[in-house]
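Quick one: structure for this chain?
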Amino acid sequence: MDAKNFRVERANETVRARTVDALRNAILANHFKPGDRLLERELCELTGVSRTSVREALRQLETEGLVEILVNRGPVVAVVDELAARDIFEMREAIETMAARLFVQRASEEEHRDILAVLEKCVESARARNRQEMLDFSERFSEILFAGCKNGLFANLYKTLRARLAFLRMTMVRSQRDDEVAKSINLLNRIISAIQRRDPEAASLACAERIKDAAEVTLPKIARLTERSN
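Got it. Here's what it folds into:
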């Protein structure tokens, strides 16, 4: 990822919010790797904003679990080890499976149409092996799902996990094998079918299978990354 992409334009959004987005994207794109120190001076040069904005952004990313503040080292990119990743997958399974059930029961007709369209795009991007589109549409699926389930608590829990889930998704798709992609497509099609039939139990079960599959693929990769960083 080119460092010039981190420049922050001072537009309608607050400088702080745009700085958070720029640094989050840099971490998720692996420009800053787990364990890397995040030096304020360098971040100011990369983004073109003040130290105050950088500090505020780092605090926000700390709440999202992407940054850790270490004694005598300062801010570093958080290391998501296998145990932490397993915890995240377990939490995701708990809230997403219930959100899927509630979505089928409570979502508007427009939300049903939107989520089916996004799921179809997920399948298309997976077949084309377009990693960035796979990530983008997967995140959009989650956004519609948690908005449409009409449960504010689940939506808030998803927001707290969002950045770490994005990191795990990226870890999964970066080196997916053909058989793993084929299985992912099959599971996406099961979710599509369940939502089309307005079957809450089937939608919940299909989402659970998709999450378990993602964990099986991702956790060994996280373990290898952790070993290399030690």
